[in-house]
């Protein structure tokens, strides 16, 4: 077993010493799938959740079905906390009547609801320290094991290639890129929306019902010819 994989399992065993169950944040990207697989190797019961921006897309339901078939884990669906900001500020949508009354939500609000529904205390996140500067600071401060927030980050020291190698060894298919290098859930990324439009037209029409101005994201960027 590689050193980084041993480190990940040891972190999860620290949590396993306290509880038989853990929740996993799923984006259906490579990091969250590796995290889910590691947790299923260590814990007796594993729960999972996904934060959607548009409810009930067939593409997302298909991803969730694949997880249930392979790991026997049901992915609970919750609205993304950023939807509150999107509705209140008319992101890619009209100013819907009553949108200003939309409650302000934080990630911790969604996590609290999931913890209560799933009956878990600890959450495993697929964050890696080279994802971003902010994540690097957070992971350095807690060394991947945050007792205060009851979060564990088993992939904290993994590189991108480490994740890909792990998926290959475990015969876990690499998730689709949706038109971009990294796949981290279905969001407002231009490449992801183009993929949705071209390969899942019914889901794209459903997306437009919630965010009717999303087509703006798909417009070709204008180029100005060089002056003669």
Proper CATH architecture: 3-Layer(aba) Sandwich
What is the overall silhouette? globular
Number of helices: 9
Q: How many discrete structural domains?
A: 1
Give the overall pLDDT as a whole number. 91
Under the CATH scheme, which class?
A: Alpha Beta
N to C succession of SSEs: HEHEHEHHEHEEHHH
Lateral arrangement of strands in the main beta sheet: 3-2-1-4-6-5
Structural class: alpha/beta
Biggest β-sheet, characterized?
6 strands, mixed
N/C terminus separation = 61 Å
Parts with pLDDT < 50 across at least 5 consecutive residues: none
In terms of DSSP E residues, the strand content is 5-15%
Radius of gyration: 19 Å
What name does CATH use for the topology?
Rossmann fold
Task: Explain how this protein is built.
- The chain is of the alpha/beta class and 228 residues long.
- The chain has a single domain (3-185), classed as Rossmann fold, CATH 3.40.50.
- Helix content is 43%, strand content 11%.
- The chain has 9 helices and 6 strands; from the N terminus they run αβαβαβααβαββααα.
- The protein has helices spanning 3-16, 30-42, 58-71, 83-88, 107-118, 133-142, 160-169, 190-199, 201-210; strands spanning 21-25, 45-52, 75-79, 123-124, 145-146, 151-152.
- Strands 3-2-1-4-6-5 form a 6-stranded mixed beta sheet, with helices on both faces.
- A hairpin with a 4-residue loop joins strand 5 (145-146) and strand 6 (151-152).
- The mean pLDDT is 91.
């Amino acid at each position: 077993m590689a050193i980084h994989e041993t480190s990940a399992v040891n972190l999860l065993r620290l949590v396993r010493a306290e509880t038989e169950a853990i929740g996993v944040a799923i984006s259906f990207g490579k990091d969250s799938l590796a995290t889910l697989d590691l947790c299923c190797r260590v814990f007796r019961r594993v729960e999972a959740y996904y934060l959607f921006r548009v409810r009930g897309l067939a593409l997302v339901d298909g991803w969730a079905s694949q997880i249930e078939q392979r790991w026997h884990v049901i992915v609970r669906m919750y609205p993304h906390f950023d939807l509150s900001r999107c509705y209140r500020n008319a992101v890619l949508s009209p100013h819907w009547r009553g949108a200003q009354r939309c409650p302000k939500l934080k990630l911790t609000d969604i996590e609290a609801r999931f913890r209560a529904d799933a009956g878990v205390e600890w959450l495993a996140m697929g964050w890696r320290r080279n994802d971003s500067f902010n994540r690097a600071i957070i992971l350095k401060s807690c060394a991947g094991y945050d007792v205060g927030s009851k979060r564990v980050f088993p992939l904290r020291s993994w590189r991108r290639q480490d994740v890909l190698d792990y998926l290959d060894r475990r015969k876990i298919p690499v998730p689709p890129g949706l038109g971009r290098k990294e796949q981290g859930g279905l969001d407002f990324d231009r490449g992801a929306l183009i993929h949705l439009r071209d390969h899942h037209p019914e889901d794209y029409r459903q997306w437009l019902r919630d965010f009717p101005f999303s087509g703006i994201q798909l417009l070709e960027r204008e180029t100005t010819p060089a002056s003669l």
